[in-house]
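Students often ask why inverse folding is considered easier than folding. One informal answer: many sequences map to the same fold, so there is more than one right answer. In these notes we will look at a single instance of the problem. The structure comes first.
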């Protein structure tokens, strides 16, 4: 409190001394040394009131009285001069200040300042100042209205020049930025020839030279900071008044000529200040737009454009590019909501950005990138450790069954800049398609480019294979364990028999098909091919009681697929109860509502629906609540070691209990030995599938098996 009180006293004294000094200096811009043409006191009073409150105007009044005393003015004029110094600030302080006159904030603030300073401020100063002059009787030759008008103009220019300047000093201090220092040197160098022209011109044409200062001030208004702009306006105005002052006398006619000059300065000052405000707001908006264009609004990191621009500017063959993606982020949004997922993403972004020195970016939902300073061998261990920390981490305490599934790719930086970033993002598909750890290293950009071209070539070949019907259906038996009626079922698996006769497994082409958005076409191909075979070979229906067909995530979101399946099945004449459509729990369902509609349409048709990979996905029990299933397929990760793991036995038993509660049949995958089969039967699992019971074989071959058995 003591320091605050001392600061207030020092500020009060400083304001009074500033007013006294300004009043004394203003005499040097007066015609006869008595009436100040650029009257600064009104501008000081308004600025002081707006910056420090109404009581601070008392210091301005004190400084004004001190000036009157030093000038030897009559005692009866002192109250008028005190009022002239205080009242403008008081009126400006009480004047409404919350008017939104324009969407331009800087211009709106400036306009509010004009309204508060010029309307009540300059008008009250002109009233009390002209009364003081009339009371002194020193200018009997002037009409009192002329004195009032002249005084208002002088007070107005004082407000325009001093109030914004003092407020800029308060906001910015007297510190001039380095760029403004260079600018002022160039500006003063350009001023010298203008002054020489004005000095050499004849008095009749000197005013033309003065107008050369206008474009220079426009230049300053567009280029410089508010403090420097207002300093230059003050300096130029003083310069013009000083030049004109030497050419006029104190008679009425010359005072009218001087008033015209002051009016011109008022117009010029208003124009430059408004132009500067508009320019500042424009530059501020450009900075905002530039930031929005180059920075991610959620995380505050670079976006793709920002990081790409930085890479183009900092092209180097040192360092490492890193791409990180959170798999199934869209499914998390569907389950938890956008706000919760944004919090998850922010946490991951902060951890990622604080990992190592470099530039970090969020390229999209769940997709991040980094341009690190160190080479790949030096950072690979740290990045792999971070990947392992994320992999399998629960998204939160309240959702312990929802786990993060990261995918990461590393690539050395080169001189290609943003082009390398695009290659690295495309190279992420390599890591995403890997089994087990989704952590990949690309040795160089050309490697990524070759992989990308290879993927594109493969995708085009898949399209041609679908057209030429090169894909064939395999079947793996699903054997009943509890004497279920209807015999064994089968799961349909897809193989690609290329033009060269080579048979490719799904892992060789399905990732590329998924990346190219071809999974929907493949699903329709499988359904159509199965229906054709069942029409041609009715004996297949005696071999298998049901045919399980896998549906991809893109098919689940296809609004036309339900009607297509219904029309195709009914048009084929095939019994729909032979069909069972499998939904893989671990896949992303981007449109939950559409997926529910599809499942309902399939069950209304008479087909069955199975939940595949139960226990491994993001929505283990949420799917059971939303979808109507007939079968649960227990994921093979709980079955492979069932004969040696009591934990797996407990989990499978719990899954069977859940299925029984929901009146669902259970199917165990990856049964590879007899002890496992016997344990499953004892746990009341309904069906089993695996190499121990039968390997996948072309669907046609199962007809031969039946014929052989007969």
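Output (designed amino acids):
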């Amino acid at each position: 409190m003591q320091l605050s009180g001392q600061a207030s006293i020092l500020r009060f004294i400083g304001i009074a001394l500033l007013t006294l000094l300004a009043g004394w200096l203003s005499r040097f811009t007066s015609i006869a040394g008595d009436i100040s043409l650029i009257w600064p006191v009104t501008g000081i009073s308004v600025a002081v009131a707006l910056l420090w409150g109404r009581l601070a105007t008392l210091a301005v009044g004190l400084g004004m009285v001190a000036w009157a005393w030093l000038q030897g003015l009559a005692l009866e004029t002192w109250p008028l001069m005190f009022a002239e110094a205080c009242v403008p600030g008081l009126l400006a302080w009480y004047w409404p200040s919350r008017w939104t006159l324009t969407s331009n904030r800087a211009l709106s603030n400036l306009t509010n300042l004009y309204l508060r300073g010029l309307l009540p401020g300059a008008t009250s100063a002109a009233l009390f100042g002209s009364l003081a002059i009339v009371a002194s009787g020193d200018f009997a030759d002037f009409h009192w209205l002329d004195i009032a008008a002249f005084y208002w103009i002088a007070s107005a220019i004082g407000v325009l020049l001093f109030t914004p300047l003092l407020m800029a000093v308060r906001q910015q201090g007297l510190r001039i930025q380095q760029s403004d220092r260079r600018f002022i040197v160039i500006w003063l160098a350009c001023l010298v020839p203008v002054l020489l022209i004005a000095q050499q011109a004849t008095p009749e044409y000197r005013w033309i030279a003065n107008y050369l200062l206008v474009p220079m001030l426009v230049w300053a208004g567009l280029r410089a900071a508010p403090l420097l702009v207002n300093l230059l306006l003050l300096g130029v105005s003083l310069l013009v008044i000083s030049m004109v002052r030497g050419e006029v006398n104190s008679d009425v006619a010359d005072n009218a000529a001087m008033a015209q000059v002051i009016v011109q300065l008022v117009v010029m000052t208003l124009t430059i200040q408004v132009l500067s405000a508009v320019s500042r707001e424009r530059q501020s908006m450009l900075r905002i737009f530039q930031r929005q264009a180059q920075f991610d609004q959620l995380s505050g990191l670079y976006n793709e454009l920002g990081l790409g621009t930085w890479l183009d500017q900092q092209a180097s063959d040192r360092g490492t590019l890193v791409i990180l993606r959170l798999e199934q982020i869209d499914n998390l949004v569907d389950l938890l909501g956008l706000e919760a997922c944004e919090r998850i993403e922010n946490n991951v972004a902060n951890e990622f950005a604080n990992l190592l020195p470099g530039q970090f970016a969020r390229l999209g939902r769940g997709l991040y990138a980094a341009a690190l300073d160190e080479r790949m061998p030096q950072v690979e261990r740290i990045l792999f450790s971070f990947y392992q920390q994320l992999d399998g981490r629960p998204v939160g305490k309240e959702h312990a069954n929802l786990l993060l599934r990261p995918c990461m790719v590393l690539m050395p930086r080169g001189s290609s800049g943003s082009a390398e970033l695009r290659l690295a993002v495309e190279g992420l598909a390599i890591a995403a398609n890997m089994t087990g750890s989704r952590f990949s290293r690309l040795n160089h950009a050309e490697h990524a480019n070759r992989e990308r071209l290879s993927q594109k070539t493969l995708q085009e070949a898949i399209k041609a294979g679908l057209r030429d019907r090169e894909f064939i259906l395999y079947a793996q038996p699903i054997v009943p364990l509890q004497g279920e009626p209807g015999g064994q079922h089968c799961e349909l698996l897809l193989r690609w028999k290329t033009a060269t006769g080579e048979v490719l497994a799904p892992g060789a082409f399905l990732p590329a098909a998924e990346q190219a958005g071809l999974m929907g076409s493949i699903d329709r191909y499988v359904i159509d091919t199965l229906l054709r075979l069942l029409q041609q070979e009715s004996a297949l229906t005696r071999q298998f009681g049901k045919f399980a067909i896998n549906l991809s995530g893109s098919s689940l979101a296809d609004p036309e697929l339900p009607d297509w399946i219904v029309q195709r099945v009914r048009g084929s004449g095939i019994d729909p109860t032979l069909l069972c459509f499998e939904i893989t729990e671990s896949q992303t369902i981007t449109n939950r509502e559409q997926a529910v509609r599809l499942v309902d349409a399939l069950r209304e048709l008479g087909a069955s629906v199975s939940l595949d990979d139960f226990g491994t996905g993001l929505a283990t029990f949420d799917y059971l609540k939303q979808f109507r299933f007939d079968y649960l397929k227990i994921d093979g990760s709980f079955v492979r070691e069932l004969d040696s793991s009591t934990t797996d036995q407990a989990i499978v038993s719990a899954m069977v209990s859940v299925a029984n509660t929901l009146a669902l049949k259970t199917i165990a995958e990856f049964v590879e030995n007899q002890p496992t089969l016997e344990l499953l039967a004892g746990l009341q699992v309904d069906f089993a599938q695996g190499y121990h019971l039968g390997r996948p074989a072309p669907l046609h071959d199962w007809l031969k098996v039946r014929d052989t058995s007969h």
